[in-house]
From TrEMBL:
Alphabetically ordered keywords of this record: Glycoprotein, Hydrolase, Signal, Zinc
Organism whose genome encodes this protein: Castilleja foliolosa
Gene encoding the protein: PAP18_1
The EC number(s) this enzyme carries: 3.1.3.2
The protein's name: Purple acid phosphatase
PANTHER family xrefs: ACID PHOSPHATASE RELATED (PTHR22953), PURPLE ACID PHOSPHATASE 18 (PTHR22953:SF155)
Pfam families: Metallophos, Metallophos_C, Pur_ac_phosph_N
Catalysis performed (reactions): a phosphate monoester + H2O = an alcohol + phosphate
GO molecular function annotations of the record: acid phosphatase activity
Stretches assigned to the Purple acid phosphatase N-terminal domain: 63-148
Length: 444
């Protein structure tokens, strides 16, 4: 194990890199996580909400989560069993003192014999940066609290993909709850409902303590698809429950979008929708990247589900077509870091492009190790490619602290260790301070 060098490495240090842990012995598997579950009350969570809460003669089912919805706005999403419950959010900067009210929209869906509750989406704002807000959904019930991200550096992202609903999932969430972060990024495979729609409900209950207090920004994975030919379309539950700011970023699909946090432009792409050069997603990505002002947002981070650089035996080659189509766009734009899931293990690359290390390419990080029920992908290729810097099959989560316009600190934390223990870490220099963007800007 390695101590957290973030406390002792000077900020001026350009790169601090820790190789694969030597002599690490993985402990035996933990028990499968079962429902019903009574989650602990985290410090930032003012009142615990029961799965089924009676307010007067109304039975209200809460699955509250929040997401960014354009500049200085937040989308509040929750589910109620009562079809007459209003899509209203009251909020303010003092507990039980709501100075503002916002109304929104609602939806629901049917999937075979399952009918969802009433799914509410309400956008609130404008909000102050780096500020705590208290809010209440539907005009009654319990109070929640969230904190808006800062407008300037530093800003910290928690990153964990392929979560599911197991004991490892709970361990991952407990670790994330201990770190100080502003936004959670999830590169696909959320609930592992896999057609059993009630598992979307229990997933909402499981993540609510964290997802109601910090924005969760997600993209879809293969377990969100849930397509049944001639019976059910793809992504029905995902699109209904996890509405992201695609309209705010001029996308025509909830499967791909972008947003800005402080000085970071984050792009969320879809591995399971068309991505070739004739597709809507490709055209949107090209237009989106062309509008990025690196003076305002010196960092570009990209997330999607299927990794492009993967030395694990699992899912080999599945991202090759998307990589062939879209990697040149990210390279030309000077993307700094790319996060993916799908492979149930951890791997970090050097800066890489077109299959070889390249100082003007992106750092690729596979982090599909959040806690899924399918277990870890433990078999790697015997000889790691030259671009692979660190790889390990353990459950964990990552933290990306963007310190300033030129330096970021990435750390990966193994679930078997205490959260402060860093299993892999590296300083990343933004391409904004390199010759890469200057050379590309000179090209006709």
């Amino acid at each position: 194990m390695h101590s957290n060098l973030l406390l002792v490495i000077p900020l001026l240090l350009l790169v601090s890199d820790v190789g694969a842990a030597a002599g690490y012995v993985r402990p035996p598997p933990r028990k499968t996580f079962h429902f019903p579950w009574t989650p602990p009350k985290p410090p930032s969570y003012p009142q615990q909400v029961d799965k089924l809460k009676t307010v007067g003669d109304l039975s209200v089912y809460f699955e509250v989560h929040i997401s960014l919805a354009g500049d200085k706005h937040m989308r509040i999403t929750w589910v109620t069993k009562n079809k007459h419950s209003p899509s209203v959010v009251e909020y303010g900067t003092s507990s039980n003192n709501y100075s503002s009210t916002a109304q929104g929209e609602h939806t629901s869906y049917r999937y075979l014999l399952y009918t969802s509750g009433k799914i509410h989406h309400v956008v609130i704002g404008p909000l102050e940066d780096d500020t705590s807000y208290f809010y209440r959904c539907g005009g009654e019930g319990s109070e929640f609290q969230f904190k808006t991200p800062p407008s300037q550096f530093p800003v910290t992202f928690a990153v964990a993909g392929d979560l599911g609903q197991t004991g490892w999932t709970k361990s991952t969430l407990d670790h994330i709850d201990l770190c100080k972060y502003d936004v959670h990024l999830l590169p696909g495979d959320l609930s592992y409902a896999d057609y059993l729609q009630q598992r979307w409900d229990t997933f909402g209950e499981l993540v609510q303590p964290l997802a109601s207090s910090r924005p969760w920004m997600v993209t879809q994975g293969n377990h969100e698809k849930e397509n049944l030919p001639f019976l059910e379309d793809s992504f029905v539950a995902y699109n209904s429950r996890w509405k992201m700011p695609y309209e705010e970023s001029l996308s025509d699909s909830n499967l791909y979008y972008s947003f800005d946090v402080a000085g970071v432009h984050v792009v969320m792409l879809g591995s399971y929708t068309d991505y070739d050069e004739y597709s809507d997603q490709y055209r949107w990505l090209k237009a989106d990247l062309s509008k990025v002002d690196r003076a305002m947002t010196p960092w570009i981070i990209v997330l999607f589900h299927v990794p492009w650089y993967n030395s694990n035996e699992a899912h080999q080659g599945e991202g090759d077509d998307m990589m062939s189509a879209m990697e040149p766009l990210l390279y030309d734009a000077g993307a700094d870091a790319v996060f993916a899931g799908h492979v149930h293990a951890y791997e970090r690359t050097n800066r890489v492009y077109n299959g070889i290390s390249d100082p003007c390419g992106a750092v690729h990080i596979t982090i599909g190790d959040g806690g899924n029920r399918e277990g870890l992908a433990q078999k790697y290729k015997e000889s790691p490619p030259e671009w692979s810097a660190f790889r390990e099959a353990s459950f964990g989560h990552g933290e990306l602290k963007i310190v300033n316009s030129t330096h970021a600190f990435w750390s990966w934390h193994r679930n078997d260790d205490d959260e402060p223990v860093t299993s892999d870490q590296v300083w990343i220099n933004s391409l904004i301070g390199s010759s890469c963007l200057a050379e590309k800007n000179r090209e006709p």
